Structure formats: C-alpha cells, structure tokens
Amino acid sequence: MKVAFIGLGVMGYPMAGHLAAAGHELSVFNRSPAKTKRWVAEHGGRHAPTVAKAVAGCEFVVLCVGNDDDVREVVTEALPAMAENGVVIDHTTTSAKVAREMANAAHGVGHAFIDAPVSGGQAGAEKGMLAVMAGGEEAAFLRAEVVMRAYAKAITRIGEAGSGQLAKMVNQICIAGVVQGLAEAVHFTRRSGLDPALVYQAISGGAAQSWQMDNRWTTMVDGKFDFGFAVDWMRKDLGLVLEEARANGSTLALTALVDQFYADVQKLGGRRWDTSSLAARLDQ
Length: 284
Description:
Layout: E1 2-6, H1 12-21, E2 25-29, H2 33-43, E3 46-47, H3 51-55, E4 60-63, H4 68-78, E5 87-90, H5 96-108, E6 112-115, E7 118-119, H6 121-127, E8 130-135, H7 138-148, E9 152-159, H8 163-191, H9 196-203, H10 211-222, H11 231-248, H12 253-267, H13 278-281
Parallel strand pairs: 1-2, 1-4, 2-3, 4-5, 5-6, 8-9
Antiparallel strand pairs: 7-8
Helix pairs in contact: 1-6, 4-5, 8-10, 8-11, 8-12, 11-12
C-alpha cells in the first residue's frame, strides 16, 4: 500500500523502517530534511519537502510527532492531499480532545482518523514489538491494523475517537506509580546496606516483579539514565493525564505527586534522562 510517514524521531524512524521492510510503498517527511534523506538512503522509498507532497496519493498517513499542535498542523495539511477514503493513523501521544477534533475533521472530507498511541519505547519500536491502543471507527481501524502490524505486537481498539489516548493515559498512570515505587525500593536497598543484585534475585520472581524492575533495576542501581523515554516527554504525558482528570473528576494524588518529582529531576538537569531517573532525586 502507499503509505506516508510523518515524523522520523527515535520512535518514527524505526517504525517507518518496518513499514518499508514489510513491502509498503513509503514516502517520508521530517522537519529535519537530513534525517529524511538518511532514512531513504537506508530503506528506500522517497522523501518530500512538505507534508502535502509526502502524502499525495497515499491511502494511509502515519504520524509520530510531538504534541497536539503538531498533529493539528500536519493533519490540516495532509487531508486535502491524501488519496480518496484515506486513513490517518496518529501514534503521537496527545489529548483525547485533539483526537476527537481530528476525527471530525477527517470525517468531514471523506477520510478517517485513528488515534493510536503506543507503548514499548524506543526498544519496542526498533524491534517492531510495540503495543498500540487505538480509538476510532471500527471499519477504519480494521484497515489501519494491517499497516500497524509491521511494527506492533499487540493492537487493541478501545472504542471511538479519543479512547486510544485515554488508554495511553492509563498506561502512563501505571508507569509513574511503578517507577516511583521501584526508585524508592532501590534507595531503601542501598541505605540498608543490602546487595542490590541479591535483592533483585530474591524479589524479581515474586509478586513485586514488573517490566520496570526487570529492565530498570540494574540501571537505577548504577545511576545510568542517559537512554530511554525522556523525563520531558513523561511530564508532557502526565500533564495530559492531569488535565483529563480535572475534566472527568478523577482523583490522581499519586500521579500528581510523581509529576512534581519529575519536575525535581528536570531541575537536576535530567530533562532528557530516562523516566527511571526518579531514583536520582532520592540520592541528593
């Protein structure tokens, strides 16, 4: 199929690569032209100087950009240039509000919009093992699912437009609490004079086990945070969560507290550190 991919960041670059490897006809656009040229040199396809030229005649347009405003800008430019009855698949983490807005805008000109935020981080994108939580019309979702299989291990339609973004908020709430608990556990282990490796061996096979423990315990112990999902991005996501919570009346005391802990990490210079850097503020 003819697919345009907009946004070749740490997630989008490998995701687009998986689409090319799956045999789709790819055109790509990124604000940094050098990155699009490098991608084409590695994977083939074509790069375009504008969004409109990248999406021209494409059945599917896949986005992985920065925020609500980026999505609005890209979709506004893309919709008039797409092939008839096209589908926009947005992997950006945004507000549910903008997802609904874009779905209405797409529907109004004969297209469809699927909000499809992902979980799995850079490693998941590189391995083609992302988890996708999607919102939008079922018929459009079923068409989009064929495209997303190139880089996802699990794809779930949650409901109508915006529900994918709400599910991603649930994901981030869970991660925030687990990472803070893990950071405190590592901190407590050290202060108690215990061997962190032996503690991990003892508890990782029981009820305390989690993906975060298996993948972040050792790096937390070693104080290594120069990788993974950046604190700045997590604060953006938690801001969306807390805004939605105010709107729907949810009580998210722990999430709000962890968000402030991430603000502390930013003050330490850790804006681009991995989210596991919550451990760093406990050692100050």
